[in-house]
Design brief:
Rossmann fold; biotin; nucleotide-binding; eight-stranded antiparallel β-sheet; Dna Ligase, domain 1
């Protein structure tokens, strides 16, 4: 029995809400957005035909409010709800609430969500269905003593994982049995905060596997098929960064075998709609069930690119009760596709999330870009740090990779820090280029913690200086009367000379941090700093882009200027500079003894008391931001003198948490 969808409420935000609405609109379906106070002016709200406020910014008061969202659907006449991914997309109670309200839930049945949303139950179900699984513990006894004992039986390396949820939250890799108890505590706490469920499972860690997942689809007429695989091996903290389809090492025989296992997994829980069965593929070709995501995946566009199918359209079709209209033999895979996730985060600072005003969002026009941000908007601290996805397709894997590098070169997000430069660098690593990247790729190529991409080339600063000179000159000309623009950069007294002072220049290129810019001809400059020299010619200047020639070589730049600040994105590196000429030196605001919040978030715990003696590396506090928990460590030895913050409260970036008086030897040093 079919029930046509006329109005679709999208119970999500950001890029996935926009993505779903685009397909719904193309199908002639009216769309309804829901939004929190933080998203009142967000792109998904602007795109929808109607929109309903559902609460304050925190997710527990807005996007996770089932009754409020159901009420919004009734108020706007929505006969279906698409949950996107995250939030309520894998919440069986939400599916049940939709059914009770006679609203179509665009997703699988409640039972499938319930089983597959629990890693322990799903693993038991897959073992019963004969799907290969990783050895581990997934039983009901959740006492710390039992988990610690089972961890000893399984051995290290070991994964401690939240039974509910996903996205890398509530997950810890343990290499030493002595660390098991702390890993259980952290994983349980993170799982309870993220998913409201602290149940854990333990699994033997498969070292250096590939993360390969199969896209499955099932309808209510007994048809279940797969749409090929995706390789999602390039991950950071168990969150995917680069995805591609097909998998570089897949063989036709292995695809048939994994595809059959994925279809069997879906059938075992009477699945319906779009789902993803995830496997770990070890170097020997053995594969093991990891989990099933009972929703549309973030990386679904790469499957769309190689199959030519619109997965959201298929979801809506199946949700209405229609047949898939596809048999397994109808699915063909053409070419190769890649997707990168653009995160608002600082790779140099251990990938800490970055928030704030979007000064400029400049996406490439040669790739598919699924985004949910706009110039003038905000990247909020309340939600996930992924702000956009960039997708390319080519006849071969190398075609798709080269196109992705070019697309990223033509992309810039100024305001919050991003992983754009890191992505460009990662796409050029030899093991990625050769298709040999495993889940160990980032650790092997960049180590643990922050990523150091090396010092900026002096040419980057020279471009910034030339642009800043020209933009100031234009601003002055706009305020002047009767000055012929052709006279700019000309002087009767000889060569014009400007001096700028950039913080970070001395560390990157040597010298005293001063840049000397000499005008040799209109829009042609000689730029010097210490022993560094560069010739910069400005060929064309647009509102946000510029074409230049640096030391005889052409390049392009995306830029945004505001007062003394200038953001510049060149094809491989980005830089933000502030001209400090004439400004007094900034005093150090804190030093190692002043412990401040590295980002906006919820201060979950303060682990020390006033008067406590601490050593460098001791855990001081736990901060939750963008759904992840971050441990704040002492940078020095000393005594805790002041505790300025309180656990359980939201704090802003750079807010004081506590102060440590350093030991005498620290002060002398």
């Amino acid at each position: 029995m079919t029930k046509q969808i006329s109005t679709l409420l999208v119970a999500n935000r950001g890029e996935i809400a926009c993505r779903v609405m685009r397909t719904a609109r193309a199908m002639g379906i009216r769309t309804v957005a829901v939004y929190s106070d933080a998203d009142a002016e967000a792109p998904h709200v602007q795109m929808a035909d109607d929109a309903v406020r559902i609460g304050p910014a925190p997710v527990n008061e807005s996007y996770l409010q089932i009754e409020t969202i159901i009420a919004a659907a009734k108020e706007t006449g929505a006969d279906a709800i698409h949950p996107g991914y995250g939030f309520l997309s894998e919440n069986a109670a939400f599916s049940q609430a939709c059914a009770a309200a006679d609203i179509i839930f665009v997703g699988p049945p409640e039972q499938a969500i319930d089983v597959m949303g629990d890693k322990a139950r799903s693993k038991r179900a897959m073992i019963a269905a004969g799907v290969p699984c990783v050895p581990g513990y997934q039983d009901d006894d959740q006492s710390d003593a039992t988990l610690i004992a089972e961890a000893k039986t399984i051995g290290v390396p070991l994964m401690v994982k939240a039974a509910a949820g996903g996205g890398g939250r509530g997950m810890r890799l343990v290499h030493d049995q002595a660390d098991v108890a702390n890993a259980i505590k952290l994983a349980r706490s993170e799982a309870e905060n993220a998913f409201g469920n602290g149940e854990l499972i333990l699994e033997k860690a498969i070292i250096k596997p590939r993360h390969v997942e199969l896209q499955v689809f099932a309808d209510s007429h007994g048809n279940t098929i797969h749409l090929g695989e995706r390789d999602c091996s390039v991950q950071r903290r168990h969150q995917k960064v680069i995805e591609e389809a097909p998998c570089p090492v897949m063989t036709p025989e292995l695809r048939v075998e994994m595809g059959a296992a994925a279809v069997e997994a879906a059938r075992a829980v009477d699945y319906r709609g779009a789902g993803t069965v995830e496997f770990l593929l070890d170097p020997s070709g053995e594969f093991y069930f990891l989990e099933m995501n009972t929703r549309l995946q973030v990386e679904h566009p790469v499957t769309e690119e190689i199959t030519g199918l619109d997965l959201v359209a298929l979801q809506l079709k199946v949700a209405q009760g229609d047949s898939l209209g596809l048999a397994q033999e109808d699915v063909t895979l053409t070419g190769h596709a890649m997707e990168v996730r653009l995160y608002a985060e600082d790779p140099a600072d251990d990938f800490l999330p970055s928030t704030g005003h979007v000064d400029l969002w400049h996406p490439s026009d040669i790739a598919r870009v699924d985004d949910g941000i706009a110039t003038g908007g905000e990247v909020s601290p309340f939600y996930d740090s992924m702000v956009a996805k960039i997708i390319t397709h080519g006849a071969t894997r190398e075609d798709a990779r080269r196109k992705m590098v070019r697309a990223l070169a033509e992309t810039a997000l100024f305001g919050p820090k991003t992983n754009r430069d890191f992505l460009i660098d990662a796409l050029g690593k030899p093991d990625f280029c050769s298709g040999q990247a495993t889940t160990a790729f980032i650790a092997e190529n960049y180590g643990e913690g922050g990523v150091d991409l090396g010092a900026h080339d002096f040419g980057t600063f020279a471009v910034a200086a030339a642009l800043q000179h020209k933009l100031r000159q234009q601003a002055a000309h706009d305020l002047a009367l009767n000055v012929n623009p052709e006279m700019l950069d000309w002087s009767t007294t000889g060569s014009l000379h400007s001096v700028m002072q950039y913080e970070g220049l001395a560390a990157a290129c040597g010298g005293d941090g001063l840049i000397h810019l000499h005008v040799e001809a209109p829009e042609r400059y000689r730029v010097e700093a210490g022993e560094n020299r560069a010739q910069v010619e400005l060929l064309e200047l647009g509102d946000t882009t510029a074409r230049l020639r640096v030391d005889g070589h052409g390049t392009t730049a995306i830029y945004h200027s505001h007062h003394r600040d200038l953001h510049v994105a060149l094809p491989t590196r980005s830089v933000s500079v502030t001209d400090q000429t004439g400004l007094s030196a900034m005093e150090d605001a804190g030093g190692g003894g002043t412990v401040v919040a590295p980002m906006h978030g919820l201060l979950l715990e303060i682990l020390v008391e006033s008067g406590a003696t601490v050593s460098k590396g001791d855990k001081l506090a736990v901060l939750e931001a963008m759904k992840m928990q971050h441990e704040i460590l002492a940078e020095i030895d000393g005594v805790v003198e002041t505790i300025a913050a309180s656990a359980g409260n939201q704090i802003a970036a750079d807010d004081l948490i506590l102060e440590i008086t350093p030991n005498a030897e620290e002060e002398e040093a």
